[in-house]
C-alpha cells in the first residue's frame, strides 16, 4: 500500500483506509506491506496491527512531500516485489510507469477532485488534472470511494472504476468522562473536525456560528500544515463561544467528542466520501453538511445542508430550537452508518487484488478527456446529480 503518510492513521481518508483495510487483510492471512513517511525522532515501528511497515523520508515541502515519498517507496517496492500494489492518490501518477515496467499489477485509488482545492495555484491545478489523466491511462484498475468520483471519471474519460466506499464504526453513545474534563457537557456543544483548508469551509462555519444566536459552544478540532494564513483567518472569525482544540490525534477522545456532540458540522466539498463524516454518523451525531453530492450520498434526507454563511446561521438556530428533531436525525444517521462496513470494504479490496494478481486486467482507457474544463476553476458548490450503482 503506497502513497500515503502510512499508519497509524492520524491524518486523512487514505490513511484511515490503509489502516482499516490493511489490518483486516493481515488478519485474513495476507502479507501486507505499508509504506510510511519518516517522522521526526525516529523511523517508527517495523510492524503495526499485523502489517509490515517501511519508513522512508520525504521532502518537507507541500508541493513535493507526497511525490518524493512515493518515488522512494516505488523504488523500494521494485526491489522487494509484491503480488499486487495499491497506489493511493492520483497525484502519484508519474511513478506508475515504473510499476508497469516492473510487471507489478496495481490499482490506483483516485482521490477527490484535488485540482479544485483552493490551496493549489494554476500550475498545481494543471498538474492534478494531468495526473488524473495519467492515472487512467497507466493503471490496471481504478478505485473510487464515492459515486460522485466514479461518475466524474466515467464522464471525463469514459473510464470504469471499482466503487469501494469507506467504512463507518458504529459507536456507543457513552464515554469515560473525558468530554466533561474539557469543560463540555454531553450533547451540549456543536462540533467541527476538519483540516484547515478553504474547501473544508471551516471559516464559513465559524462565521455562520458567530452570527447565530446559538447558546451551545462551538468546538473546533483541526489544524493543517502550510496553512498559517487560513488558520489565522478562522481564529479571527470566532468569538468567546468558540473553543479551538487544535489537532486531536487521540481517536478515543475524538470518538467521544463525536458521540456527545449536539450537532456535527461538516464543510468538506471536494474529497469524496470522508471518514470524519462516517465517524460522526456512526456516533449518531446529527450532521449539518456542505451541499455537495458526496455528502448527500452519505447522509441523504437525514442530513441538513448549507452553502452560505447565512445557511449555517439559520440551520444552527433551527437545530437549537428543535432538540428532539436533532436527536431523531442522529439516530437515523447511526442506522445509515451500518451500511458502511469495513469488513465489506476489505472484501472489495481483497477481491480486486486477487483479480489483479491473477492477471484479470480490464482494457484501460486512453486518458483523453471527453470534455475540457477551465484549469483555474475554483471548487464547485451545490449538489450534483448521482446515479445508482452497484457497491463492491
Query: How are the strands of the biggest sheet laid out side by side?
Result: 10-9-8-11-12-13
* Major β-sheet annotation: 6 strands, parallel
CATH topology of the largest domain: Rossmann fold
Q: How does the overall form come out from the CA principal axes?
A: globular
How many strands appear in the DSSP assignment? 13
Number of helices: 14
* Global mean pLDDT: 89
Given helix and strand content, the structural type is alpha/beta
**What is the CA-CA span between the terminal residues?**
19 Å
**How many domains, in number, for the residues?**
2
Give the second-level CATH assignment, the architecture of the largest domain: 3-Layer(aba) Sandwich
Binned, the helix content reads 40-55%
Strand content is: 5-15%
CATH H-level homologous superfamily name of the largest domain: Glycogen Phosphorylase B
Parts with pLDDT < 50 across at least 5 consecutive residues = 374-392
- Using the CA coordinates, give the radius of gyration: 21 Å
CATH class wording of the largest domain: Alpha Beta
SSE sequence, one letter per element: HEEEHEHEHEHEHEHEHEHEHEHEHHH
Structure description:
This protein is α/β, with parallel strands linked by helices and 392 residues long. It has two domains: 13-167 and 343-357, Glycogen Phosphorylase B (Rossmann fold, 3-Layer(aba) Sandwich), CATH 3.40.50.2000; 178-337, Rossmann fold (3-Layer(aba) Sandwich), CATH 3.40.50.2000. Helices cover 40% and strands 13% of the residues. The protein has 14 helices and 13 strands. A six-stranded parallel beta sheet has the order 10-9-8-11-12-13, with helices on both faces. A four-stranded parallel beta sheet has the order 4-5-6-7. Helix 8 links the parallel strand 9 and strand 10 (242-246). Helix 1 (13-27) packs across helix 14, helix 7 (202-211) runs parallel beside helix 8 and helix 7 (202-211) packs across helix 12. The longest helix is centred in the N-terminal third of the chain and has 17 residues, at 122-138. The two termini are 19 Å apart. Residues 374-392 have low confidence and may be disordered.
Amino acid at each position: 500500500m503506497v502513497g500515503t503518510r502510512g499508519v497509524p492513521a492520524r491524518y486523512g481518508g487514505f490513511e484511515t483506509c490503509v489502516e482499516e483495510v490493511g489490518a483486516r487483510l493481515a488478519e485474513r492471512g495476507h502479507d501486507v506491506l505499508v509504506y510510511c513517511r519518516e517522522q521526526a525522532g525516529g523511523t517508527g515501528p517495523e510492524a503495526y496491527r499485523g502489517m509490515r511497515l517501511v519508513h522512508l523520508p520525504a521532502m518537507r515541502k507541500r508541493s513535493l512531500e507526497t511525490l518524493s515519498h512515493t518515488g522512494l517507496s516505488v523504488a523500494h517496492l521494485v526491489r522487494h516485489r509484491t503480488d499486487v500494489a495499491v497506489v493511493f492518490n492520483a497525484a502519484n501518477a508519474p511513478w506508475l510507469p515504473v510499476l508497469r515496467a516492473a510487471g507489478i499489477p496495481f490499482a490506483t485509488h483516485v482521490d477527490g477532485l484535488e485540482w479544485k482545492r483552493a490551496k493549489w495555484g494554476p500550475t498545481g491545478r494543471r498538474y492534478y488534472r494531468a495526473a488524473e489523466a495519467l492515472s487512467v491511462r497507466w493503471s490496471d484498475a481504478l478505485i473510487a470511494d464515492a459515486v460522485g468520483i466514479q461518475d466524474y471519471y466515467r464522464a471525463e474519460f469514459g473510464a470504469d472504476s471499482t466503487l469501494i466506499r469507506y467504512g463507518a464504526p458504529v459507536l456507543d453513545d457513552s464515554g469515560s468522562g473525558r468530554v466533561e474534563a474539557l469543560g463540555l457537557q454531553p450533547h451540549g456543544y456543536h462540533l467541527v473536525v476538519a483540516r484547515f483548508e478553504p474547501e473544508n469551509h471551516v471559516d464559513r462555519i465559524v462565521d455562520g456560528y458567530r452570527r447565530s444566536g446559538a447558546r451551545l459552544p462551538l468546538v473546533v478540532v483541526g489544524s493543517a500544515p502550510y496553512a498559517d494564513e487560513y488558520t489565522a483567518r478562522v481564529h479571527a472569525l470566532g468569538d468567546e463561544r468558540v473553543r479551538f482544540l487544535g489537532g486531536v490525534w487521540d481517536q478515543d477522545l475524538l470518538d467521544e467528542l463525536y458521540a456527545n456532540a449536539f450537532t456535527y458540522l461538516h464543510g468538506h466539498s471536494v474529497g469524496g466520501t470522508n471518514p470524519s463524516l462516517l465517524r460522526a454518523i456512526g456516533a449518531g451525531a446529527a450532521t449539518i453538511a456542505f451541499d455537495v453530492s458526496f455528502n448527500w450520498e452519505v447522509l441523504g434526507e437525514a442530513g441538513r445542508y448549507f452553502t452560505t454563511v447565512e445557511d449555517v446561521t439559520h440551520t444552527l438556530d433551527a437545530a437549537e430550537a428543535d432538540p428532539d428533531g436533532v436527536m431523531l436525525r442522529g439516530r437515523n444517521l447511526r442506522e445509515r452508518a451500518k451500511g458502511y462496513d469495513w469488513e465489506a470494504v476489505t472484501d472489495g479490496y481483497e477481491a480486486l487484488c486477487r483479480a489483479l494478481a491473477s492477471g484479470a486486467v480490464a482494457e484501460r482507457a486512453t486518458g483523453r478527456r471527453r470534455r475540457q474544463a477551465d484549469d483555474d476553476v475554483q471548487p464547485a458548490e451545490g449538489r450534483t446529480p448521482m446515479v445508482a450503482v452497484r457497491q463492491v
